[in-house]
Amino acid sequence: MKLTTRIIIATAIFSIFNIQYSITQAQGYKLTFTSSSLADGKIYLGQHFRDEFKVLDSATAANGTLVFSGKKKIDTGIYVLLKDKKTKMFDFVIDDSRTFTIAFDENYSNAGMKVTGSKANTLMYQYLAKLDWAREQSKANNGDKAKKDALNKEMKSFETKYLEQNAQYRFTQCIKILSTTDVPDKIPAGSADTNLRDWQARYFREHYWDNVDLSDHSLIYTPQLFDKMNLYFFNILYYQDADTITKYAKIVLNKVQNDSTMLRYFMDFILPKYERSTKNIGWDQVFVNLVNDYYFTGKCTWASKAEIFNKRQTVEFLSQSLIGAMGQELIMADTNQSNDPKDWISSHALPQKYVMLWFWDPDCNHCKKQTAELIVLYDSLTKANNKIFEVYAVGYESDVEKWKGYVRKHKLPFINVGGPNVNIDYQEAYNVHGAPTMIILNADRQIIMNKTLTTKNVLPFIEKYEKKHPEQANRGPSKWQLEGIKRAKIK
């Protein structure tokens, strides 16, 4: 394991682990903490759950001493001291002893922890202190390769020895869980793959969970499982397309699908982020895929009928604006606000290959800024006779006069529509939950982008789309474009 990886792990480990093993332990405990910097007042004993803390007990510090004691069973694990139910002081382990004392300094430094009565805590702080030392040495090396290699060698030897000599301790088991996946440096013989980097990335994703015993759902009380889950879904899979994210998400979800506690732990955390993301392309598709595959197949046994019903409504709502879905035609009145539908303008029947649906609000500062940037891009393309897309700008404002005034004052050159004269509810049709919202449609008026891009990224996105979809690059006009050309000639 590389030093940089160990240092990252050290940060995660120091905020660590509260595994609730079901092993029967001796009754009674007395946990004493002392420090000259410990102020009088109530302190809380907590456990980790995702990125939060659950309070288990409280005690009052006096004269630099704090004691938690009781006759009930307290399980093996790593716990946390909290100042105010939320602010962490430091972690400690309950493993080989339930009667011990920890003296700490004002910085809660690992090297400053003095333990009496618990070898498990002594060993844990020694390990963490060594990693703290290595981090400082790494900074001091200033990129010196020889020193870096020597430090890596020393730390590898230290870690190997530590893991071998202290395998019986819970903390050691948690270190192994946090270990990175060893990726081969060569593609196996006989493989059809030719790109080593792509093969290694795929191997890493497929074997990411190899060192985690997902059959033990007590791991849900460790920040380490949370960190590993969070890193997997929102870093390692972050830039993948929806199909790839779904594929690798199911690798871990299928491992825990028979354990409702563990499956719920994952689902309750990841689904809201995929559903509500307003910036990540395709994440709404991942939400739909996972809900279809797990909720609607009965695997989420905790889900009530009401929750299933709500999920189904959300899926139906999102499905209308997913990438690849057919965009619904909007027919709206322009600034003339004619009541005659014959005068209204179609979002689809336009001569340009691409159409940008731009939902904006004249009271929104971000909308104003990006609308101004869009004008510059739009005018430059028009002057170059290369207006590859049309902007169908929908005024997201109930005050029609304010919207019309802004359009006229700033001379917006787009197709400007708004007001109550519209054929359908565009908010529902395109999942518009605020302004600005950008939707880009291709020649067939399918949705190819449902997230708001910055203006500078609009043309690069279209270029990238056409490289990935060469059939769209040199195609003839679609029926929608032809209809738009026809209407333009009539006018």
Task: Tell me the radius of gyration.
Answer: 29 Å
Main sheet summary = 7 strands, mixed
Structural class: alpha+beta
Number of domains: 3
Approximate strand percentage: 15-25%
In round numbers, the mean pLDDT is 89
Helicity, as a percent range: 40-55%
Any low-confidence stretches, pLDDT <50, length ≥5? 7-26
Net shape: elongated
**Looking across the biggest beta sheet, what order are the strands in?**
10-9-13-12-11-14-15
Question: How would you portray this structure in words?
Answer:
The protein has helices spanning 3-14, 119-141, 145-165, 170-178, 196-206, 223-236, 242-256, 260-276, 283-295, 305-319, 365-383, 400-409, 426-429, 458-468, 470-473, 479-490; strands spanning 29-34, 41-49, 52-61, 65-70, 77-82, 88-94, 99-103, 114-116, 331-334, 345-346, 354-360, 389-395, 415-422, 437-441, 447-449. The protein is α+β, with helices and mostly antiparallel strands. The chain folds into 3 domains: 3-175, no CATH class; 204-319; 331-490, Glutaredoxin (3-Layer(aba) Sandwich). The strands form 3 sheets. Strands 10-9-13-12-11-14-15 form a 7-stranded mixed β-sheet, with helices on one face. The chain has a 4-stranded mixed β-sheet with strand order 4-1-7-8, with helices on one face. The protein has a 4-stranded antiparallel β-sheet with strand order 3-2-5-6. Helix 11 links the parallel strand 11 and strand 12 (389-395). The N and C termini lie far apart (70 Å). The relative contact order is 0.08.
